[in-house]
Amino acid sequence: MLRPANVAQLLALLLVTSAIPSKGRDERERSHVSGVGENVKNGEVNKAVVTTPPHIVMFVIDDLGWNDVSYNGAEFPTPNIDKLANSGIKLNQYYVNRVCSPTRSSLMAGRYAYNMGQDGTVITDGHPYSLPLNHTTLGDKMREAGYSTHAIGKWDLGYYKWAATPTYRGFDTFYGYYNADEDYFTHSCGAAYIDPKTKKHKGMHGVDFRDNKDPALDKNGSYSTHVFTQQAEKLIMNRNTSKPFFLYMAYQAVHGPLEAPQKYIDMCAHIQRMERQIFCAMMMALDEGIGNITTQLHANGMWENTLIVFTTDNGGTNWVGGNNWPLRGNKATMWEGGVRGIGFVAGVGVKPPSVYYGLMHASDWLPTLAKAAGASPATKQPLDGLNVWAELMTNASSPRTEVLITLNPPRGPTPAKPHAVYTEGTAAIRIENWKLILGKPDCGGAAPHNSSMPKCPSGWVHPNGVQIPPPANSDHIWLFDLDADPLEKNDVHQEHPDIVQKLRQRIEEFNATHISQVEPPVDPASDPALTGGVWTPWVPDEDEELQ
After folding, report:
1. Which residues contact 4 (CB under 8 A, 6 or more apart)?
2. Are 268 and 281 in contact (CB under 8 A)?
3. What pLDDT score was predicted for residue 4?
4. pLDDT score recorded for residue 36
């Protein structure tokens, strides 16, 4: 393997990198695939032919970067993930949000995070808000279609009230944790708030692990990737055979902290950079778990009628071992490395191999999977997501032509200040091949733990940690033609002011709604010390039955 030793070598490599095909490339090589619940013949959908609703297993992998699977170039093997991806449809132009809660909100509710007031914020320890309670969830839609519904792993959509937790949001069972991150072995996490009396920071800490509503305190010392895999296997073996099966499998991996059993670390001894080595070990355990789940689906006679969905929630975090090479940027940035997601569909009805070049967004999963399951697409709130099921199954052009990547907070040029810039806010949008970024494209600051890497690099980072710094830009405006420049090397905003204006106008159409982005401070009343050392919903529910 080529291991560039310095920035000069990396620059040379970046100039010749062609691993990221642009939209529309190699159109003739695309394969056509059949559908589930709809027969596809000669590229046309025959809606009169209906098959048994498929079982659906949705893997959501935390902080998985573009270069963190071996089918995309990682320097460690992920054979089970690769096998699934290579048997299905890889999503080449698929967008997620820059951080976890907004993506999970979009995925679960079929809407842009901005339209739910949740763009750019992470719902974590002690925050008194959630995915809005008046929204229909993907779990609701699957249950409506007659599925048994199960959520395992990371929730990260709020838990201040019981009504915000998974078993009240469409899932028959839940086994996992409510917050954004925690220790992989002790299943505990902490937060801090400003004491209103002393005006000083005060810490709080507790266990965050649930079996449905009950604290699960018997897993201390057990690695979460193994625990979640075992629970999925148990659900598959003991499922209700009279119903189709929906599993939302949201692994904790590969989010920090960097933790893995030693046997997996030993498997990654060939990687010299410590952070990348432990990250590799976490991926080894994750890939093994996914392999075990697919084996269990086979063993229980489900595989031939199971649809697999695989997605990240945002780009990889370089300072904790993730990587997005050759894409630019990092988790929590607007660059492609932060928001262009790893994703694929495989299983029943999907004919291998194929790459889908149509535009997709995380919000598309709710209407798309509702279609695959035979459910109505109707929800309590208007959808931003589009049903792309038929287009995926026939490799047709996507109905989506734009993606609102982020808009947080809602500010920018106004009639009173037409030349104001987004230096305090952030906005990014893609329309067809053009991508516009306004304001602050990254989170800034240094990475914790004395890392030599910035927390959110705006340049390009090789897996070995060598960085290519970004070009200077004092305008706070970037425009890229992603068909010609998928690695975002050449900002052309000065050459195309008309396109900048067109995309900026579209951002302002969203901005005109003036939806406030919710980010209340940590509530001291959430302190686990008040509830037996366990993170627990603390705000009373209006419905007494939920108490």
Report:
1. 10, 12, 13, 462, 464, 466
2. yes
3. 47
4. 45
